From TrEMBL:
One of its GO terms (molecular function) is dioxygenase activity. It comes from Aerosticca soli. This is Benzoate 1,2-dioxygenase beta subunit. The keyword Oxidoreductase applies. GO terms for biological process: 3-phenylpropionate catabolic process. Belongs to the bacterial ring-hydroxylating dioxygenase beta subunit family. InterPro entries: NTF2-like_dom_sf (IPR032710), Rng_hydr_dOase-bsu (IPR000391). The lineage of its organism: Bacteria, Pseudomonadati, Pseudomonadota, Gammaproteobacteria, Lysobacterales. Keywords: Aromatic hydrocarbons catabolism, Dioxygenase, Oxidoreductase. The keyword Oxidoreductase applies.
């Protein structure tokens, strides 16, 4: 796979992830993650510094494996997340996708993102950066690590896995 083919396959993968979230295709979305994925949304420690250790510092969201994500989806599906009922309509936009490392089986990726959401006659947007570690598996990618940096974390609405 040359550099352009690698970039295109990663772009297509990240666009697909957004499509699954926007379509609330939860099983398809979960299938993108390795069972041992680390899913982390760090908090801001100061105006320009993020927390650095999800085990000892504040995080906005942290799951050390896919079972945390599966539990979150269960709550969304069953209405056990009253703050997420009804779910907002969302649009994920991903851009500035850059491959920052590739060893033939794993790929480090950075990207920028914006998510627009609409619920209860109000629109909100979140934006930030993604950092991924993707692993090649069966001709596609799986997410081994996803770090989501939310630039505007002080928000007037709920932030959840579908809104970032």
């Amino acid at each position: 796979m040359n550099d352009l083919e690698l970039l295109r396959s990663v772009q297509e993968f990240l666009y697909r992830e957004g499509e699954y979230l926007d379509g609330q295709r939860w099983d398809d979305w979960l299938a993108l993650f390795d069972p041992e994925v680390e899913y982390w949304v760090p908090a801001w420690d100061s105006e320009h510094e993020l927390t650095g250790d999800p085990m000892s510092e504040m995080s906005l969201i942290y799951y050390r494996n896919r079972s945390g994500l599966e539990d979150r989806i269960f709550r969304l599906r069953t209405g056990r997340s009253s703050a997420s009922t009804p779910l907002p309509r969302t649009t994920h936009l991903v851009s500035n996708i850059r491959i920052t490392g590739f060893d033939g089986s794993q790929c480090q990726v950075k990207a920028s993102w914006v998510v627009f959401s609409f619920k209860d006659k109000q629109s909100h947007q979140f934006n930030g950066r993604y950092e991924y570690v993707l692993a090649a598996r069966d001709g596609d990618w799986v997410i081994k690590r996803k770090k989501t940096i939310v630039i505007n974390e002080v928000i007037p609405s709920l932030m959840d896995i579908y809104s970032i």
